[in-house]
Amino acid sequence: MAELPVSVGAHVDAATSLDEARAVGIHAVQIFIGDPQGWKKPVLDFEGGPLAFREALGETGITAYVHAPYVINVASTNNRIRIPSRKLLNQTLHAAAEIGAAGVIVHGGHVTADDEPGQGFENWYKAVEGAEIAVPLLIENTAGGSHAMARQLDSLAELWTAIAAADGAEQVGFCLDTCHAFAAGLDLTTVVEDVRAITGRIDLVHLNDSRGEAGSGADRHANLGEGLIDAGELVALVRDAGVPAILETPGGIDERRADIAWLRDHL
Fold first, then answer.
1. How far apart are CA 192 and CA 207, in angstroms?
2. pLDDT at 2 over 80
């Protein structure tokens, strides 16, 4: 069977992640460390703990990425959200370093309609300035939200300008989610070039089709070839980005195999 021109992985449960990777035939996994919807300190659900996971990665040659909890919003002007978000993000970065992860993915976050957008960008600067970024921190574009930091290209440009002034900015990269970009109304035929013109880099692709219409703002992932994204545009984006791609599509092992088969057929 021909090798894919890019490394492809999938989001899987931490406890069974390496077994699932071998079953599907992938060389990268994305996991949560702890509760993705909670504020508790991250604890890895893997037999033997972080050291055992790190050793298993070395033995299998599998690359691991960590997705930060969804509740994190370091852009927020609400102290009860922003301060715990910074704490949890730093804890997640530390936990990811312990297991030898290749990076931590975190959503760009948002402010409210009553806030000045510049406050959100300034809060991101402070978050990066105050973080111990032991592994690359990859900011992910989001699908919806009128006041999101990383949905539209103009906001992303302001965000990157703010972050660039912080110590540790060289450790901040970008994760391009295809479903989110489509739902945000971005042009998938130029989005790789457009993002790189702003950030200078794309480190990872979240490879998902979309059940929501273009520009709908709906974050509704679909399996490859079963959504509304043009197949040619999706494949061209993966090829143009030329970086590892992580599937966050619905289903289990059989669906992952089908997604990879679809990608292999089209690439």
1. 13
2. no
Q: How many CA atoms lie within 13 A of 39 on its CB side?
A: 9
Beta-bridged to residue 121, according to DSSP, are none
Tokens representing 49? 């703990």
Enter the pTM of the model. Answer: 0.97
At 22, list the tokens. 């071998």
41 pLDDT more than 90: yes
Mean predicted confidence (pLDDT) in 181-201 = 98
Could you give all domains of the chain from N- to C-terminal order, each with its CATH number? 8-266 (3.20.20.150)
